[in-house]
Amino acid sequence: MINQSQRQALTRVKELMLRLHHVTREAGIQVDEEELLNNAISNLESVFLLVVVGEFNSGKSQLINSLIGSEFCETGVLPTTENVNILVHGPQVKVSKDSKNIHRIFLPVPLLRETNIVDTPGTNAILTEHQDITEHFVPRSDLVIFVTSVDRPFSESERKFLRRIDTWKKKVVMVVNKKDLIDPENLEKVVDFVKTNASQELRDDVQVFALSAKAAMQFKAGSQPGMKEGYFKTGFKELEDFVTDALKDNNKIRLKMENPLGIADHLVHKYMKVVQAQQGVLRGDLAVIKEVMDQLDQFKVEMQKDFLLQVSKLDNVFLRMMEKTDAFLEDTLSIGNIGDLVRADVMKTRFDQMVNKDVSEELQESMVNLVDWMAIRTERQAELVAQNMSRAISPSLGRAANCTIGSDFLSNRISMVRSLQNHARATVSPDYRQQEQERLVKAISTALYTFAAVEVSAVGLGALFTAALFDWTGIAGAGLLAITGFAVVPHKRQRLRKDMKRNIVLLQTRTAEVTHKHFSQELDASVEKITQSIAPFTRYVQAENSKFQGLVQSFEQLAKDSENSRNEIRKVT
């Protein structure tokens, strides 16, 4: 029976385990560990569980036989225990199977009223499956008896297994079996060796019992005089007394309540490392995202700067337009062409031949080149973003794989990265250039229709420019010469040349304004598309990082509460 203080401590342990269950599920706990956690809660008020472990042929089964006083467990030179055998109390001998590798053996033994005893396969069993069974069962124990033997005390495999037991913070006692095989002086050295190494691995002062389980069983079974004295010399009585003492109320209650705390400490430590490793991966992701955004900012700066160079190529075209138009006026506005001057259609044709033909092609080519430049640079930047994200994040996937246990963390990241790459590359579609040319032509055309009152029937940017210029020169109205007379031709030519230069500059300025406005809009749109392509991944990383920060805080609090519960248990027991 437990008192009120002990029951309150027990309640707090249960509450802690339930909180741990909730937090570890968010952290992606493995199925078998979740089952262990559930069992730890339900086993708090179950029968005491004593688990015996050790290498094969160390005398585990013989030790259990000596504890219960009967040869129920099979012994031998070869690994004989292939299953986990749970010895429980029952009115008669009976064996049932809990599962393929777990057998429950009912025995009419008084000791088993107080505790269930678990006989496990050897920790160095030939079949890995057998060792896995043992390692899976140890966390459920309230007390572990670790059996080694004088002929190979504390082997390397035993050291490794004891280290794994320590992660569950179990109460462990060491047994050095077969002490009758060596002299007392060497036995003392062996015991000291085992105690020193076990205490080092468990970071605690480990109790060690040197005994001979086989001899103890023989003396127990015998009825001749002197058997009792012989039994005492086997050293087994000290172990029996320890087990009996451990099963007394307060000691048993303490071990029972500390058992789930050991499981809690193990899982908190394990999944704290998992979460912190995942946080490390996410910090790398956030750094990559920042780098990509910085690259996009730099891309905008460089594009704005390079755009001025691209526009300067247009300036050269307008300069040649000015030269060709000047040559046209010089050649056309003369008394010798008086017959053509009165015919606007003839003047338009001649203007097309002398000015429009070459300039129109150059302007059209310049606009196409400008669009191609924008498209190529945007395509390169989108591909650079995809490559940088992949190249920077891919190495972390391996690290994430090592720290991701039972969660969707790795698969979600892989999916996100692949989606990001596809979206970034799709920012510039295959028909982007053609569409962009059409948008730019439309933008400039609309401006010229409004600004220069050009007829909508004009086809092509070059034609639009020269049509605007032709109308602005007033050449279309040169038929006035028939009225004003030949004397005005030189004056008319001078005025038209002056108007032509002013209007070309206006046309050039307006074209630059429209082109820059369109370029800025398209640049902003392209950068926004790339930014939006990585936005889902950015939101995912930020959300996961926030979640993991919360999990770390929860695990830290659970660790503190576990230590507080452990201190409380020691006080009330």
Description:
- There is one protein chain.
- This protein has 573 residues and is an alpha/beta fold.
- It has helices at residues 4-27, 31-42, 60-68, 111-114, 128-137, 156-166, 184-202, 213-221, 227-233, 236-246, 249-332, 338-341, 344-403, 409-425, 432-452, 461-473, 481-484, 489-572; strands spanning 48-54, 84-89, 94-99, 102-107, 115-119, 143-149, 172-177, 208-210.
- It has an eight-stranded mixed sheet, with helices on both faces.
- α7 links the parallel β7 (172-177) and β8.
- α15 (432-452) packs parallel to α16 and α15 crosses α18.
- The two termini are 12 Å apart.
Helix content: over 70%
In percent terms, what proportion of residues is strand? 5-15%
**Topology pattern, helix = H, strand = E:** HHEHEEEHEHEHEHEHHHHHHHHHHH
Kindly provide the radius of gyration, computed on alpha-carbon positions and rounded to a whole number of angstroms: 45 Å
Main pleated sheet: 8 strands, mixed
Overall morphology: rod-shaped
Low-pLDDT stretches = 76-80, 454-459, 472-488
Please report the total strand number as a whole number.
Answer: 8
Distance between the termini: 12 Å
Instruction: Strand order, main sheet: write it out.
Output: 3-4-2-5-1-6-7-8
Helix/sheet category:
alpha/beta
Mean pLDDT: 81
Tell me the number of helical segments per DSSP (H or I, 4 or more residues long).
18
